[in-house]
Structures are given as C-alpha cells and as structure tokens.
Structure prediction request, 163 residues.
Amino acid sequence: MPTFGVRLDRHSNRTMPVLFTWKGKTLTTVQAKGNVTRIFPKSPERSDEAAARALHLVLGSLEDSKAEDIVTINIAGKSALGDYMVVVSGRSSRHVMAIADHLITDLKDGGQGNARVEGLETGDWVLIDGGDIIVHVFRPEIREFYNIEKMWAAPDMEDGTLH
Prediction:
C-alpha cells in the first residue's frame, strides 16, 4: 500500500514527500524505481489512448520541424512523470528554439493544453512537459554530454540491489 505524506531529510533538514513504500522502507519519488504506480490517478480524458494520440501529435510536429535523431522512450510504469519521453536534436540553438516553439503551438492547437517549458531562452536544452509526454530538445553536443537516453535505457534493478 503506497504511503503518502512527508518526512524530514536528516541531511538537508527539509521535508520531502513520501510517496512509496518498498519492503517496508519509505521511498521518495527520487528513490522509487521499477514498477511505479501513478501518484495521482489519470483523469478520464487522460487515458492510454489519449497518451498515444498526444505522442502521435508530438512526433508529427517534430517531423514537420525537421528535428533530428528522434528517440521515443516508453516510461509508463517506470516513472510517475508520464507515459512517454521523446528526445530529439536540433542543428543549432535557433533550430532548437524553433522546434520547441512549433511543438508548443501544435500541442495547444491539438487540444493538449499549455505545456510547461524550461530552457527556451538559451536554446541549448529545452524541456517541454506536456503531461503524459515529456520532450527534450537538445543541441547535439549537449545531448551527447547528458546522454539521457542511456540513463532511461538502464536495466531494471533486481530486488536486492537497492542501495
């Protein structure tokens, strides 16, 4: 049974949300790995079909913007962040910003609401959180440095390997 509440972090003296229990140990969202259930249930209009339609809209917009090296990662069940993560590259800072602007407009026009956006000012790495879909738009060298595809492609942890 999931635990909801807060606990005091001894190192930072701040309260942290407690969202899961695993083998009797309380975990925060940062520590939770593997088969994670959603913290808040999906609303009726946010079904798996709606997530698939949103993904189709995102991929179409990225193709129209000439985004490069498009990678889609299914994170449903691995993270409470969303259902899909999409990682793409733009050729330059200007191209990254244009891809992001076009995608934000397409999400709004497609009925997906207002996406939360970070990094649009610099154009090195733009994060677009569309709810069920999270899109990372990188310049190629920034993408290579952070290599988030490799992080999400890591194998699932075995029961005895949580440290």
